[in-house]
Design goal:
Layout (H helix, E strand, L loop, with lengths): L2 H8 L4 E5 L6 E3 L2 H20 L3 H4 L9 H14 L15 H10 L5 H9 L5 E3 L6 E2 L2 E2 L8 H5 L3 H8 L7 E5 L6 E2 L6
Parallel strand pairs: 1-6
Antiparallel strand pairs: 2-3, 4-5, 6-7
Bound molecules: iron/sulfur cluster (2 copies).
């Protein structure tokens, strides 16, 4: 932790929210990755055809943070630069459940159009070793196109803050460690 950050944090009563920080680098997205995504989505769309009553197997949408806690979460994820997206690979956790939801919400689109919704959102440059949709400005998918895994996941530090009973205290987000650590300004209601 850099010295001046330690002092700044020690001097106030803000609640620290501690998250990791990604150090991945941006590289051009290979056509091979886009091909793997296409193959994965075609399999998920085919699996959807054989699902029984897909509407009923669609789980309720996850609860999103709102208001001040949403601002804290957004600040944390921005400073962290999407550390948790490394598991998304070339599939982004998209499965037949997600396809069922997307098709239900966009009845005017056929399967090919849904496929293109995703293919068109693959960024030209993405973070090496992270999810295919992890671009320079974060995730290129809107929440309505993301998997339930992505829409409901929070890392330990953020989950602990979001499930706590103090949603009104000022907060300082601390992302990463050592020289690479970054802190947010004090966030207050
Ligand atoms: S949930 Fe946690 S690990 Fe994932 S992007 Fe946000 S702060 Fe980073
Ligand atoms: S789809 Fe978006 S939120 Fe989900 S792992 Fe990929 S980049 Fe992260």
């Amino acid at each position: 932790m850099r010295r001046h950050n330690v002092d700044a944090l020690a001097d106030d009563t803000s609640l620290p929210v501690i998250v990791p920080r990604s150090h991945k680098v941006l590289v051009p997205t290979s056509s091979e990755r886009a091909r793997r995504l296409r193959k994965h989505l075609i399999a998920a769309l085919r699996a959807l055809r054989t699902m029984k009553l897909p509407e009923r197997s669609d789980p309720p949408p996850p609860t999103e943070p709102v208001g001040f806690v949403a601002r804290v979460a957004q600040t944390a994820c921005t400073l962290c630069k999407g550390w948790c997206c490394k598991g998304g690979g070339d599939h982004a956790y998209l499965d037949e459940q997600t396809m069922a939801r997307v098709r239900r919400d966009r009845p005017e689109l056929d399967a090919r159009a849904v496929l293109m919704l995703y293919i068109d959102r693959v960024p030209r440059d993405g973070y090496e070793g992270s999810c295919l949709f992890h671009g320079s400005q974060g995730c290129t998918l809107t929440r309505s196109l993301r998997s339930d895994v992505c829409n409901s996941y929070f890392c330990a530090g953020l989950a602990s803050y979001l499930s706590g009973d103090d949603a009104t205290s000022p907060v300082v987000v601390i992302a990463g460690e050592g020289n690479a650590m970054r802190t947010s300004p004090i966030l207050a209601l």
